[in-house]
Automatic annotation (TrEMBL):
Residues 592-616 are annotated as: Disordered. It comes from Vicugna pacos (Alpaca). The gene is LOC102531794. It comes from the Eukaryota. GO terms for molecular function: amino acid transmembrane transporter activity. The keyword Transmembrane applies. The chain crosses the membrane at residues 37-58, 64-87, 108-129, 161-181, 188-210, 245-265, 286-313, 333-361, 382-401, 407-428, 476-498, 510-529, 541-560, 566-584. Residues 539-589 form the Cationic amino acid transporter C-terminal domain. Keywords: Amino-acid transport, Membrane, Transmembrane, Transmembrane helix, Transport. Gene3D superfamilies: Amino acid/polyamine transporter I (1.20.1740.10). This is Cationic amino acid transporter 3-like.
Length: 616
């Protein structure tokens, strides 16, 4: 009996949600073309990351090598973007990494994905609002921050911001009120603000090529001595690094890339527009890739321009671009850029705030969060409780925490969610073909004429004769994929903590790294030898299973660059989330309306073939 209870509990953790179409809330179907989706993705992505983050990373983490940080972050985003693109094409309806995980790898994975997406999006709202306040305050001469610092700084704990920013709180609450009243995104407004945003950034890039000095990428110790002598007349570089293009070394590039990943958060919103997109099988993958490419060009150009105009250690981290133009003697242009920055940040803020209530509402309707969060307004049909809760939480975070602390939490939460999405892509491609858009009651014959015996385990794992997947091969992939997660995490940890010992030939570290690589390669080959679904998706991630695994490894390796303080904050958030799931969600889940069924044999017909499926 005890073993049966344990089995039923484990089956609950991996039960899946059928992909049932949900009602649309008065939104015309198929009205967004590729250009609309690109404008949406670029508008939601080009925000605080380019106007504020670039200054802090360049000054304190990477120096001029921030351009390399954005390149690494962009490559990681491309890998995740390809995974989003496949699901966006497979499922031409509104969705997210939470939904994709739920219909693929099961409930617990989906809950962790959704819970961390909520964290990332709420803190993204707080960080963008904080960036808006920095820019506005800089435009009026820093009077607000000076007054608040004099009043509150002596009384603020060390783990909070230097002062509570009431301007930010008012801004977020104002936006929340607009959403509660039923404000909607406009494709025309999105295009206008995105165009204005790109014009401002183009001017900044052009300014850097005109007024920049290549010497700022080649700073030596004597440059610091001449510009910033200490009390004794000399200057020790200390926290300023070692000069040159990479003053903080390779570790600075990796840490900067992990932080810069925040700058690309937003492109995934394109995948949530599946029901509103024209020809989503083509437009969603294309829009995601174009958006990431445009954003990378903008980040690369602005970071080059900024570090050429101003020595990295003199950059103002709170208002880097206007102050850079002031530094080169273009003060009027700095004011114009500040106004453009405010518009771009406001657009980015509203775009992110639209998505959070939808995610909370969906999880509450699925029973994983409290049912009250699914309450909608009688007239506007907006998820009013979810909007109020997310808006107030974001306002409090923006009020009390520094921008830099918020950014790293966004990055770590998003990287985890993207890793779980890549895992979902890896699993779903090797499952028996099924139409995800139909009711779970629709059954199909998996058509396996070749029955494999259990006597030869190696043949079962690596049988090249099968051309169609069976439930058994699907189980093999599922288990191998779950095994790869701790193996990739362990390898990332070894390479992040002891890189010099690994590559210098230390017998212990090198042996551990090689052993992990051999195990990862063996499990990957096992997955590769399994048959894929007979019906290819409209868009598919290339080089399966290598590319999703590479995405997981890169994401986890970037997560390993975070500080202990960040991991402590992240751990507290997930502890709260798991307490809610095991205390409430696991018992109220809409996927648990029937008793768990034991896995079927290969000859049976079934919709889902991942362990713990509960078809009704």
């Amino acid at each position: 009996m005890r073993c049966q209870n344990v089995l039923q509990f484990c089956q609950k953790l991996v039960r899946k949600q059928p992909l049932m179409p949900r009602k649309e809330y008065g939104i015309p179907r198929g009205h967004l073309n590729t250009s609309n989706l690109v404008a949406l993705g670029v508008g939601n992505t080009l925000g605080a990351g380019i106007y504020i983050l670039v200054g802090g990373v360049a000054k304190h983490i990477a120096g001029p090598a921030i351009v390399v940080c954005f390149l690494v972050a962009a490559l990681s985003s491309v890998l995740s973007g390809l995974c989003y693109a496949e699901f966006g094409a497979r499922v031409p309806r509104s969705g997210s990494a939470y939904l994709y995980s739920y219909v693929t790898v099961g409930e617990l994975c989906a809950y962790i994905t959704g819970w961390n997406l909520i964290l990332s999006l709420v803190i993204a709202v707080a960080s963008v609002a904080r960036a808006w306040s920095y820019t506005f305050d800089s435009l009026i001469g820093n009077h607000i921050s000076q007054g608040l610092q004099e009043t509150f700084s002596p009384h603020m704990p060390s783990f909070l911001a230097a002062y509570p920013d009431f301007v930010v709180l008012g801004l977020v609450l104002l936006m929340t009120g607009a959403l509660v009243l039923g404000a909607r995104e406009s494709a025309l407004v999105t295009k206008v603000f995105t165009g204005l945003n790109l014009l401002v950034l183009g001017f900044i890039i052009l300014s850097g090529f005109i007024k920049g000095d290549l010497h700022n990428w080649q700073l030596m110790e004597q440059d610091y001595n001449l510009t910033a002598p200490g009390p004794s007349g000399t200057y020790s570089l200390g926290p300023l690094g070692s000069g040159g293009f990479v003053p903080f070394g390779f570790d600075g590039i990796l840490q900067g890339a992990a932080t810069c990943f925040y700058a690309f958060v937003g492109f995934e919103d394109i995948a949530t527009k599946g029901e509103e997109a024209q020809n989503p099988q083509r437009s969603i993958p294309l829009s995601i890739m174009i958006s990431i490419f445009i954003c990378f060009l903008a980040y690369f150009g602005v970071s080059v321009s900024l570090t050429l105009m101003v020595p990295y250690y003199q950059i103002d981290p709170e208002s880097p671009l206007p102050q850079a133009l002031l530094h080169v003697g273009w003060a009027p242009a700095g004011h114009v850029v500040a106004v453009g920055t405010l518009c771009a940040l406001a657009r980015s803020l509203l775009g992110v705030m639209f998505f959070i209530p939808q995610l909370i509402y969906t999880m509450a309707k699925d029973g994983l969060l409290f049912q009250g969060l699914a309450q909608t307004h009688a007239h506007t049909r907006t998820p009013i409780v979810a909007t109020l809760v997310s808006g107030n939480l974001a306002g409090i975070m923006a009020l009390l925490f520094e921008f830099s602390d918020l950014v790293v939490l966004v990055s770590v939460g998003t990287l985890l969610a993207y890793s779980l999405l890549a895992l979902s892509v890896l699993v779903i491609r090797y499952q028996p073909d099924r139409n995800l858009s139909k009711s779970e009651k629709t059954r199909e014959n998996i058509g396996m004429k070749h029955q494999r015996g259990n006597s030869n385990i190696l043949k079962t794992l690596c049988d090249p004769m099968n051309t169609s997947p069976s439930q058994k091969s699907g189980w093999i992939v599922y288990r191998c994929a779950l095994l790869l997660v701790p193996l990739l995490t362990a390898l990332s940890l070894v390479l992040a903590q002891w890189p010099r010992r690994v590559f210098s030939g230390d017998p212990v570290c090198t042996t551990v790294a090689v052993l992990l690589l051999v195990l990862i390669a063996g499990v990957t080959v096992t997955i590769w030898r399994q048959p894929q679904g007979p019906t290819p998706p409209p868009f598919k991630v290339p080089a399966l299973p290598v590319l999703p695994l590479l995405s997981i490894f890169v994401n986890v390796h970037l997560m390993m660059q975070m500080t202990t303080r960040t991991w402590a904050q992240f751990g507290v958030w997930n502890a709260i989330g798991l307490a809610i799931y095991f205390g409430y969600g696991i018992r109220h889940s809409s996927a648990g309306t029937t008793d768990p069924q034991p896995p079927a044999s290969d000859s049976q017909t079934l919709d889902n073939n991942i362990p713990g499926d509960e078809s009704s």
